[in-house]
Amino acid sequence: MIKITLFGVLMEKKTAAKVGVAICALPLIMVPTIWVLTQSTFAQKNAKVDLALILAVDVSYSVDNSEYRLQMQGLARAFASRDVVALIRRCRFGRIAVMVVEWSGRRSQSIVVPWTIVSDAAAAQRVAHAISAAPRRSGRSWPAPPPAKTSISALIDFAVFQLFTSPVTAVRHVIDISADGVNNDGERPRFARKRAIAAGVTINGLTILNDVNNLDVYFRQYIAAGPNNFVIKANDYEAYRTAIKRKLLREVECLAVS
Description:
Distance between the termini: 39 Å
Structural class: alpha/beta
Oligomer: single chain
CATH superfamily: von Willebrand factor, type A domain
Number of helices: 9
Radius of gyration: 17 Å
Largest sheet: 6 strands, mixed
Strand content: 15-25%
CATH topology: Rossmann fold
Low-confidence stretches: 1-10, 25-44
Helix content: 40-55%
CATH class: Alpha Beta
Order of helices and strands: EEHHEHHEEHHEHEHEH
Shape: globular
CATH architecture: 3-Layer(aba) Sandwich
Number of strands: 8
Mean pLDDT: 81
């Protein structure tokens, strides 16, 4: 069995080729933006962290503007929580790296907050402020949208690329996906999921049962993957506020040391 290293991860040659092809298939218009964001943070943020975490927020056309704000406000509030910061400080290195991404269709992933290291309350507050102040990057034509497009598979490939071109060295790599619908654009998510597993990435889900009642079951079967993965459900967007905090606490808690 031939193995090679891709983005610092040892994997089978066949799997590495699939990951590389998926990354190359990403829209070319994204590449310059990704490169600039990564390079601009490298000198300041090159450090060992306990967790590299991508928080992926669903902004597809099924999400109206009030629901979008509930997601962003809930995420900001959760991130600034004393409980979350206290758990981060108990980890081995006492810091994590965070990126926030808005996503919808296969050609729509936008970086809202580039890689930022969080090691104390001040850094957490800066991330929370950036999340709260972020304008919606896609799905803006609601309430008269074109057919809804949701590509969880493209998001996973995009996030894996971001994780392994990040300026930090992380103990764990996690993609935290919030969504209110199933994959209906691009390839089937099981292929991207397999590539993420091969790269050592954990995928967790927060399903918002606004439109699809059994979305949490779908996520457990086809999306969630990797070590210690889990899915949390919120019955609606109002419930998202408490659910996202529980999710963040759970993701950081498994790293904390006594």
